[in-house]
Amino acid sequence: MARVFSGMQPTGNLHLGNYLGALKRFIPLQEEAESFFCVVDLHALTVPRDPEDLRKKTVELAALYVAAGLDPEKATLFAQSHNPHHAEAGWLLQCVTRMGELSRMTQFKDKSQGSDSVTAGLFTYPALMAGDILLYQADEVPVGEDQKQHLELARDLAERFNRQYGETFTIPEPRIGETGARIMGLDNPEKKMSKSAASEANFIGLLEDEKSIVKKFKRAVTDSENDIRYDPEKKPGVSNLLSIMSVITGKPVQTLTEEYQGKGYGHLKVDTAEVVIQELKPIQERFRELTQTGEIEEVLAKGAEKARAASEKTMARMKEVMGLIPGR
Ligand code: TYM
């Protein structure tokens, strides 16, 4: 059976981009593969965080995993810091990663730009991410488009490690959706929807209420024409709405374009808002129930045990082939 691994950071507001590009796509995979979905709390530490808020967001993200449809009986759901192999493997992989490779990461360039307090962790972040994936011998990694470069580095590191120390890792394949892998900001469809966007008008939070969702879609930036066409270059705003609608309804963009022939942008915006509201409603209800019961901590505890057991062999192999003597 194929193995799947993916992770999300417990930071900011989880938004529609995270959901459509990643989380929603995790759900069917739990049926067909042995899957591991991680709340990457160690990655969250690469920029300063309020400790109390990080704890809260970690449990909330795990609750969102379950609320969105991940079943802890089928998939392993856990917090990265609960399996110490991640930090260990992250270090060992840093020792096969080159500075030049890390310097070329666009996410590092974007996140460090204009900041005078960039941490070493932000720089070495992709080595930790590679460790996350390789520890589980994952065959596939479902992610949004913005993680593609990190995934390529993980593959390069796995290949280099295998060459240098002997066959150790499966080479993981990125699994990036055809539609929805890059949901754009509603206030600026030239840039991806982002947790760290300056304006709230940029994103739809997964826990956002109906009124606010309608308002943001109505104000979504489009263009000065009036025909509904899918053309991400020339019509990024309209194309973004069509992508969102397509991923949720399962209708191809082409079909939607035909359905909206002759209709105005206003119509498309209101309908997209409605589709999003209906998609998020059951998730929000389930989320509220879950966060009241304390059962998520239980889910994470069981998940951590399964994760540790699953990564143990690879961890031991990494240490051995690199020349570390076994402890007693
Ligand atoms: P993170 O937490 O930034 O994002 C979580 C997932 O959401 C996807 N995503 C998007 N998809 C479509 N449109 C968008 N606008 C959008 N914004 C974000 C991301 O591609 C991602 O799949 N480094 C990772 C977390 C990570 C990880 C891993 C992922 C750590 N270890 C191992 C996979 C495997 C990150 O920061 O994702």
UniProtKB/TrEMBL annotation:
PROSITE patterns reported in the protein's UniProt record: AA_TRNA_LIGASE_I (PS00178)
Single GO MF annotation: tryptophan-tRNA ligase activity
Enzyme category, top tier: ligase
Family indicated by similarity: Belongs to the class-I aminoacyl-tRNA synthetase family.
Cited Pfam families: tRNA-synt_1b
Protein name: Tryptophan--tRNA ligase
Protein localization: Cytoplasm
Organism (species): Salinithrix halophila
Keywords of the record: Aminoacyl-tRNA synthetase, ATP-binding, Cytoplasm, Ligase, Nucleotide-binding, Protein biosynthesis
Sequence motif: 'KMSKS' region, positions: 192-196
